[in-house]
Amino acid sequence: MDINSDLGESYGAWRMGDDAAMLDIVSSANVACGFHAGDPAGILQTLKQAAARGVAVGAHVAYPDLAGFGRRNMDPSSAELVGDVIYQIGALQGLATAAGTRVRYVKPHGALYNTIAQDARQAGDVIEAIQAVDPQLTLMALAGAPLIEWAKERGLRVVAEAFADRAYNEDGSLVSRRLPGAVLHDPQQVAQRMLQLVQTGEIETITGKRIRLQADSICVHGDSPGAVEMARCMRERLLQAGVSLQPFVSMA
């Protein structure tokens, strides 16, 4: 199993999360590309820290929405979205090269992530952009979403992910952040539900019903309060149960 987190999201004097601590826990890092968060100097520092620890790096592409942290819905034209995603991957590739590592996958962020899980047009734009830059890049997508099959049909390798710190609806979608209970904060609860997912392939929804969910990576949001403790507790619980933790992409 892989553990990933959204990192590189600090912006100037605005500090977001604890990248150094999280990089000691995760096996993959989704690094901001400057559109929803992150400044070049901070992103470069995060990439250097990831390289030093052997953590796989992915481009955390987003809508151009610094004020809304990439969590506001947008409807860009296909030309705009393709260009934006290419631009972000390319920027992170340059910084990654300078840091002694490379971009191995792409994980859309926030509103873009949730939109392309179901929206065929925007999903196609993101797939087109990834293939234009490097068709060998892996796409990380929401487990159970139509996007997974759309990307596979276009020849992309796809890795399905589950969210440790987010509540699920019965259809496998994430509960809106606007609703109570959408974000989980108890490290022990988070660790136990992720162990259950790994061992049984099931996760408990916000209504208490269990649903099937196939995932090869687990995300803990780096900006969540107590994110480091949640990630550390989950890692320890999985290792104690004999679960092997490693990046889902080759580091060769």
Automatic annotation (TrEMBL):
Q: What is its EC number?
A: 3.5.2.9
* InterPro entries given in the database record: Glyco_hydro/deAcase_b/a-brl (IPR011330), LamB/YcsF/PxpA-like (IPR005501)
Q: Which UniProt keywords apply?
A: ATP-binding, Hydrolase, Nucleotide-binding
- Reactions that this protein is recorded to catalyse: 5-oxo-L-proline + ATP + 2 H2O = L-glutamate + ADP + phosphate + H(+)
Task: Show the stretches that span the lipid bilayer.
Answer: none
Q: What CDD domains would the database entry show?
A: LamB_YcsF_like (cd10787)
Indicate the quaternary assembly: Forms a complex composed of PxpA, PxpB and PxpC.
Q: Which NCBIfam families match?
A: PRK05406.1-3, PRK05406.1-5
What protein family does this chain belong to?
Belongs to the LamB/PxpA family.
Function (record text):
Catalyzes the cleavage of 5-oxoproline to form L-glutamate coupled to the hydrolysis of ATP to ADP and inorganic phosphate.
Q: What is this protein called?
A: 5-oxoprolinase subunit A
Name the species this protein comes from: Comamonas avium
Name the encoding gene, please.
pxpA
